[in-house]
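Progress report, Aim 2. The chain analyzed during this reporting quarter is listed below.
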Amino acid sequence: MLDCNYLGHQARYSLRDLSHEEIPTGVIFGFLSRVISLGNLFKTNEILFCWDSKHSHRKKIFPGYKSKRGKDRTPAEQREFQSAMDQFKELRLRILPRIGFRNVFVQAGIEADDLIAKICMSGLSDFIVISADHDLYQLLYPNVRIFNPSSKKMMTHSRFRDEYGLDPAHWSRVKAIGGCTSDSIPGVQGVGEKGAVDYLRGKLKPGKKRDKILSSQDLIDATERLTKLPFLKTKEIVVRRDSFDLVALDSICSELGFESLDLGAWEHFFRSEFEEPKERTVKVRRRM
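Predicted structure tokens for the chain:
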């Protein structure tokens, strides 16, 4: 199960200069390369794609939510970011469905984290979640593992308990107390993640931090509406069987100039015949 915006931004940073006929294609190529590499790594082609909505219901509760993201972008950086967003949309609406991936999910006002949570809670199967987002730690049920492609670290239910001394179900409370800098969630001032973990373990010594937490329970309860997954308005998700189409993928490669994309490797992937992940290159013209 993929946190697609995370993977898309990985591709954006590594292949931002790739284009075909003056149209940027680096995000698309990099994303597809990561899909087949991860599939080969974990020996599966049963992949669920979860995307962030453009807008967030959480902002209606807390207008400052993620308010700092993108504020310091230069005009050139903003154009490059918008190009990536356009390629995300192309992947989501056209390319992945044409290839035959039928489990491409997005819901208005809902984040990929919420979709991932909704699926994990369904009990349908064992899941490997691909993401670097620690907010997802609260989803570490015995049937769920989280793999971070950047650190190559696999987090499991037992490993989380060993590292933090808590059940993963408490993680949303940790984030509500300690705050989350990347999401602009302040938490209880001066406590932080470690202080929140110590408090929930009963290890935080009496003093200012503990007193602040005890006097901020209403605030913490309200903040946990932001940090708990899935968000209340997340709708049920139906998972379907994929129907892969190598001819469609070949056509997409021609349209986007992916001349050296290994269609043979994709054919094996579609057939559940897995190879070891390897780096792939593509011959496309770079923008000047």
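Residues 279-288 have pLDDT under 50 and may be disordered. The chain has two domains: 2-157+233-286, 165-227. These observations will guide the mutagenesis work planned for the next reporting period.
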